[in-house]
Amino acid sequence: MKYLSTRAASNDKSDRKRFCEILLEGLAPDGGLYLPESYPQVNAATLTQWRGLSYADLAFKVLSLYIDDIPAADLKAICRKTYTEEVFGTPEIVPLKKLVSVHPELVEGGVQTSTSSVRTEEGSVRTESAIYLEALSNGPTLAFKDMAMQLLGNLFEYELTRRGEELNILGATSGDTGSAAEYAMRGKQGVRVFMTSPYGRMSPFQQAQMFSQQDANIHNLAVKGVFDDCQDIVKAVSNDLAFKRQYKIGTVNSINWARLMAQVVYYFSGYFQATKSNSEKVSFSVPSGNFGNVCAGHVARMMGLPIDHLVVATNENDVLDEFFRTGIYRVRGSADTHETSSPSMDISKASNFERFVFDLLGRDGGKTRSLFNDQLNKTGQFDLSADPAFVQAAQRYGFQSGKSTHADRLATIRDAHQRFGVIIDTHTADGLKVAREHLSPGVPMIVLETALPIKFAETIVEALDCEPDRPAKFIGIEALPKRVLVIDADVALVKAYITQHCA
Ligand SMILES: *Cc1c(COP(=O)(O)O)cnc(C)c1O
Predict the structure, then answer these.
(1) Pocket of ligand 1 (CB under 6 A)
(2) C-alpha–C-alpha distance, residues 323 and 406, integer Å
(3) Residue 48 is inside which H or E element, if any?
(4) 38 and 2 in contact (C-beta within 8 Å)?
(5) Is 352 helix (H, G, I), strand (E, B) or coil?
(6) Element (H, E) at 495
(7) CA within 20 to 30 Å of 280's CA: 194, 293, 300, 377, which one?
(8) 3-state secondary structure of 291
(9) Is residue 326 helix, strand or coil?
(10) Ramachandran class of 175: left when φ > 0, alpha when ψ lies in -120 to 50, beta otherwise
(11) How many other β-carbons are positioned within 10 Å of the β-carbon of residue 176?
(12) If pLDDT is split at 50, 70 and 90, which confidence band does 204 have?
């Protein structure tokens, strides 16, 4: 399997790369994102074979279709080392939980069915399709980013050891990405992590998670500023090509193809858990920010997984919902980006979206380049509403969308608690709220649970007036000694710190 850039000229095959070449790279040199030359197809016989596999072996099967420059035995060992009950808390790794009413008497006729029901305004009860939560957040940092980042840590260590090289990961985080990266890279050979975060702005739990790490290869830099200041520092350092080369600076942001590929696996696993035969379809509802998670769903669907709809759920930062409703992609300025109670979806533009647009435009790299490089840079938006391709986003690619607000989030968290006896986090609540607007009879809806409620306890307390459960390994983490350097928002200081710690 070779990889091409979303901005590549279609007749130019000279730039195509293999998996391990793009593993440690961010953007392609032309500014595009890497995608496989084609999506490997999975037929019914293969699906049947895969149904019974453990998560680690399923991951190996999926990854094998995309990676041909790591020997199979090594890749299998990497998958088995990554997806263990010890790291992810359950033998299923991503168990599915059906939402079942804890008040069966509320269901019409008093009959408890496996479906959820919605009381309409007229007071009648409408029976809808089964809704499931797929638990993606039982990994080390309690958010779904562990699913891909844990694999990335092991792939990086493998490839760096093979090459005899080192990598210094420089990142900016407002919470989930940074801690997932640090937990994945801690103690790994050949890798150091320098993670900037806005000083005093993350939740106390998130700060404790990151700053309590004692591994020598992990460096926390709390920048006196906001998240954008952190991101600007990372950009400035990466744009200094001489520094970048000398200090082998890399990133682990969500545009990395390996992260997206790892996420494809749990769409297969969710499908197998919700169905008995390959003739059934399911839909997924995905709390979305940078479009990485749902783009993995798009890839799974393109491979032939029987997915009916992919529901993109946004919060008040509704760049993506606006596109799927109107065909207009309009990025926001930082002043127009809302700070919400589902903060991991607070984005001004969706950095993975270019991958889907490339497919939508029939894989026309020239057209993709002109939209993202020329139009978006000049005017901050592009408009596909009159393009025949736009209709296909829903019809051919199965996309639907919706948005959720703080009030919706609170109402959904309360309702899920009362009706189903579950406490869900704020991002998952956005997913469930929008999922309910897109149910089709007979098609199970799988809502991806992207974080555990304890990470966003303040809003849970606001909704339910009680503290969410805390997994045992996180009890008392706020009191642990912290390893963090508070630093001014100054590129030169960050560079000096890196120089000093790479010696
Ligand atoms: C990162 C994140 C998201 C958004 O995922 P994307 O891949 O950026 O769309 C949603 N929920 C949580 C909890 C996250 O950490």
Answers:
(1) 143, 145, 176, 254, 287-293, 344-345, 427, 450-451
(2) 21
(3) helix 44-51
(4) no
(5) coil
(6) helix 491-501
(7) 293
(8) coil
(9) helix
(10) left
(11) 26
(12) confident
340 alpha carbon to ligand 1 midpoint, in Å? 13
pLDDT digits over 37-79, tens only? 999 999 999 999 999 999 999 999 999 999 999 999 999 999 9
Q: Which of 265, 185, 190, 178 is nearest to 230 (CA)?
A: 178
Integer Cα distance of 127 and 118 in angstroms:
7
Closest CA to 309 of 446, 418, 474: 446
DSSP 248: T
CA 425 to ligand 1 centroid distance, Å: 12
Q: Which residues contact 325 (CB under 8 A, 6 or more apart)?
A: 401
* Among the ranges given (139-148, 193-202, 426-435), the one the predictor scored with the smallest mean pLDDT: 193-202
Q: How far is the CA of 494 from the centre of ligand 1 (A)?
A: 27
Using most ligand atoms within 8 A of CB, pick from 450, 452, 459, 460 the residue to mutate for ligand 1: 450
Specify the pLDDT at position 383. Answer: 97
In this structure, CATH architecture of domain 258-468? 3-Layer(aba) Sandwich (3.40)
At residue 205, what is the residue type? F
Q: How far apart, in whole angstroms, are the C-alpha atoms of residue 198 and residue 230?
A: 7
H helices of 327-476, in order, are: 353-360, 365-369, 376-379, 388-395, 406-420, 426-436, 457-464
Tokens describing residue 256: 């990395």
Whether the CB-CB separation of 342 and 317 falls below 8 Å is answered with no
CB atoms inside a 10 Å sphere around CB 225: 18
213 close to 197: Cβ distance less than 8 angstroms: no
Helix (H, G, I), strand (E, B) or coil at 339: coil
At which residue do the structure tokens 């593993």 appear?
23
Q: Are 447 and 432 in contact (CB under 8 A)?
A: yes
State the catalytic residues.
145
Count how many Cα atoms sit within 13 Å of the Cα of residue 297 in the half-sphere of its side chain.
27
Alpha-carbon distances of 124 from 106, 144, 160, 439, rounded to whole Å: 11, 37, 61, 17
- Boundaries of every domain in the chain: 258-468
